[in-house]
Design a protein that fits this description.
The complex is a heterodimer of chains A (191) and B (280).
Chain A (H helix, E strand, L loop, with lengths): L7 H9 L3 H23 L4 H15 L9 H20 L22 H19 L3 H12 L4 H8 L3 H25 L5
Helix pairs in contact in A: 1-2, 2-3, 2-4, 3-4, 4-7, 6-7, 6-8, 7-8
Chain B lengths: L2 H8 L3 H12 L11 H20 L1 H24 L37 E3 L1 H7 L18 E5 L6 E7 L19 E9 L4 H4 L8 E7 L2 E7 L4 E5 L5 E5 L5 E7 L2 E7 L3 H9 L3
Antiparallel strand pairs in B: 1-2, 2-3, 3-4, 4-10, 5-6, 6-9, 7-8, 9-10
Classes of the chains: A mainly alpha (191), B alpha+beta (280).
Amino acid sequence: VEGRPLDERELIARARRGDIAAYEDLVRAFQDVAHRAAWLVGGADDSDDAVQEAFIKAYNALPRFREGSPFRPWLLRIVTNEARNRRRAAGRRANLTVRAIEDRPANDAAPSPEVAVLVHERRQALLDAVGRLREEDRLVATCRYFLDLSEAETAMTLDIPTGTVKSRLSRGLAQLRVQLADAAVNGDDVR
Amino acid sequence: MSAESRRTLAALDDDALEAALRDLSSAIAVGQPAALAATVGARLREQDRGRQWRSTRRPVLRWALVAALLALLAIAAMAAATGFGLPGLRILFVGPTASPSLSPSASPARTMATDDLGTRTTLEAARAAVHFKLFVPDAAAVGGATAAVYLDSTVLQGQVALVFPATAGFPATPTSPIGPDGTAVVLAITESNGTFGTAYLEKVLGPGTTVTPVVVDGANGFWIAGQPHQLVVLDALGQPLFQTLRGVGDVLVFVRGGTLIRIESGLGLQRTLAIAHALR
């Protein structure tokens, strides 16, 4: 049909043949999830540069992309590696923060200020606890909960078996519960 | 955090914790992505122009490479003639021949860098977890010492570190740092699926380091001396990977059968090459 948008496979096929305009369409289609992944894995400081570099590397790696396999986890593997490498090179942590309730899109009636404070501090405590997980467990949790990837997509993104995704997720949740329980017993912030 | 929030979080069961994590996803402050398509497209077009330019000069480059290879062979012949090398090894020195070694007066209380070391495991488990051939030195080459094995699964296709503690048959050097288990570390061998990009090598090395090309059993490699702290290699996808060095000593890096091998020791070039030669 004349004028219909090209689907993902057609765009990939064209990009593999050197059609940069087709690749620009792929960039537009995936830049939001790529940016989110880079931010969550590498932190805010370098996320734009990490995503741009990852898209360049992905284009150059397209000849190695297996035709018919899902593009999103393949791309996210490159993005997360790039973001993680940059974070390691800079010797910093991702240091994620939670938005204030009032900054979020208003879907429901606004909570009272007291409730908003409690919800915000719980979310930040939970996010900090995730940040203290071992890196391999944190990456799996990030893919599953914060990027909303399936187990299979998480496995492809991190290049590990799905069984390992399950075991790391289970271990990560257990570790989170230990951290939260310790904080309740010791009356301290989550460690 | 308030006591009420602590109690609420501690009371979450697994299902509630998962729900809380999914709810948290939409609350994480993530900035707006930049409009990348035009920038990426412009860079790729520039890259294509560069490739076309290079392809028109390929014959000239080919002749330049042949000339460089001949020069290397001549230097190798000179090195062999002067008796430098070990049995079975051909070592090509290009550039500086004086390798600064680590100061013998370095503090013995230094601790080994354990960043990105991964988790302790067994050799069998590490072999099963990685996607490359894992090499281990013959016991005789390391005085019978047994390595502590660490697996970093966050590296693409896995990364394994073999950390050799000092023993009576494999004594500590003046530069041996203290390892995670409290004993001096003589040798650290780190292996992954990848290679090294010469373009990256000198970028992250400090001014006090020297990089000397070497050949280990027919494979190109580099001897990096002078307390390097970080190394950039290329992972299985060809992406640069920043590696934190363990602070055990100088570094020998080379590729064997697709496995990128990094040997850190304070043993000096020749003994380190002997260990590389004994990898099976």
